[in-house]
Design brief:
single chain, about 220 residues, alpha/beta, 2 domains, five-stranded parallel sheet, 11 helices
């Protein structure tokens, strides 16, 4: 299985955290960074991701392709389903975009088995997963004094995935406001390793649904 991801942090998260968890269940995943070398996440256009997904599906005819893209960074004018999702309740947003991506890819590649493309949209971005355990974040950054602030943010949302996507209130912006020293590729991935997939699954229902679908591919995907 190949996961097409939008940034270096997501690739490290797949390689160091999610892939080992899946590998223990006989599902083998590698991550591919979308677009040309040097691309950075944020403001990603669908056409770039689409080209990579289609190329991989053609080159690897037995492989399942999934994705890990942040809802927050999706430009509504460039991503299928994104405008419609903006008007829907939280629990339907990601699924709406995922279905639109799948429909577009299946429509573009004649004869493709729809089960070979399993899009995943992270609500609202990678850092939401870290709010599964605020204490771990503060420990990794070395700021135990900020634990109460993070717990307050977490308590204000039903799940970490509902910490919203405002310009100043999306998960990474909240972390940067509290920890100016926060570096996503370093602190983010290290915190994710310490939190672990099981704790994230327990706290984040949409992430849990995705990882269950991946886990259930055991024995079905090369």
């Amino acid at each position: 299985m190949i996961a097409v991801v939008e940034g270096h942090t997501e690739r490290s998260f797949i390689d160091r955290v999610l892939a080992p968890w899946l590998g223990a269940q006989v599902v083998f995943m590698t991550a591919r960074l979308v677009g040309a070398p040097g691309h950075k996440g944020g403001g990603l256009k669908f056409v770039r991701a689409r080209n990579d997904i289609l190329r991989l599906l053609k080159q690897e005819p037995q492989t399942v392709v999934t994705t890990m893209f942040d809802f927050y960074g999706m430009l509504p004018e460039h991503w299928p389903g994104r405008k419609a999702a903006a008007k829907l309740p939280h629990d339907r947003k990601a699924a709406t975009v995922e279905k639109a991506i799948q429909d577009d890819i299946v429509g573009a590649l004649k004869g493709l088995d729809p089960s070979r493309i399993l899009p995943y949209v992270q609500m609202y971005e990678f850092e939401a997963l870290l709010f599964s355990s605020p204490e771990v974040i503060t420990d990794v950054v070395g700021r135990a004094d900020a634990t109460d602030k993070l717990n307050s943010i977490r308590a204000a949302a039903s799940t970490p995935e509902e910490i919203n996507d405002g310009d100043q209130t999306h998960p990474s912006k909240r972390l940067q406001a509290i920890f100016p020293e926060y570096q996503k590729p370093v602190h983010g991935v290290l915190a994710a390793e310490r939190i672990g997939i099981d704790a994230m699954r327990a706290a984040c229902p949409h992430f849990a649904e995705w990882t269950t679908r991946l886990k259930d591919l055991s024995g079905k995907s090369p």
